[in-house]
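Open question from group meeting: does this chain pack into something compact, or does most of it stay loose? Before anyone orders reagents, we agreed to write out a predicted structure and look at it together. Recording both the input and the output here so the notebook holds the full record.
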Amino acid sequence: MSEIRPKDTVNDDSTVLDIQNLTVYYELEDETVKAVNDISIKLGKKRILGLVGETGAGKTSTALAILNLLPNPPGVIKSGSIHVCGNDMLNLSQKELEEIRGGTVSMIFQDPMTSLNPVYSVGDQIAESIELHEKCSRAEAWDKAEEMLELVGIPRERIHEYPHQFSGGMKQRVVIAIALACNPKLLLADEPTTALDVTIQAQVLDMMCDLKQKFDTAMIFITHDLGIVAEICDEVAVMYAGRIIEQGTLEEVFNSTKHPYTEGLFNSLPDIENREAELHPIQGMMPDPTKLPEGCAFAPRCPYARPECISTPQTERSFSETHKVLCSAYDDPSFRIKREER
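Structure tokens returned:
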């Protein structure tokens, strides 16, 4: 993969999202799924954070926790705090949460087919959010709904049509229009381009970057696609078994990879400049979230693992003010030499 070059810095460093030591469990009758384990994230205005990880790593649970939308039961926030634009999301009343959701913070869900109500026109569904959060008349909400459709590349003449009359890519654009209708300060996008073909995917990504600039929106982009991360993100957080194991700016994580798991992700990508190059997939599977080890969850798959990695809780190491890695192998002076030899 080619080297990532620094992007333009943002002068306004005001914090939009502040997550501290968040832990989320799903408490079932006979077992407990430890979905998110003591993670912390800070995100500033107009910044896009790529939240990367395998299926089951805890990415969607993190997003639902931010909205305080975890299914309860069985989902329980065991500890931690979440603030969005200063609002304590875990201690607000239901009415206060309803005012914030869709207004201050919005979410684009992964499947547009199930996100839209089939019995209402797309115009009704966009206008409903605007009318609710901006306290405007129905006519004013409808006018803005037409503007939002135009903004996401759909002719306003189609505002009276129903979801079944749109293609998958168009449905996703409608979902994005709903999410952005009230100019949210924080947008959570859960793999919004997974079901789209490559051409539509590129158009949607360009549009989301444009909207970030237009509305000063901060964004968490949940994905497993490192190519998308390289294209649109400013910061990266890599999740594994419910923990953030590496976090930093795009340039730090891509150009100065530190965690063995992140290294494995990059090594498993095909090299388009050398089509004969051998791929090096990560061996093994992610551990059962109901039976996580005391030490490093990645240790059984890690080529650098030491015996103490499996039994000893991992310590966070900072390589800069922004680049942090959860890996106690760096306590071993020979570890860096082993990595350089591979």
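Observations to bring back to the group:
The first helix runs from residue 59 to 66.
The radius of gyration is 21 Å.
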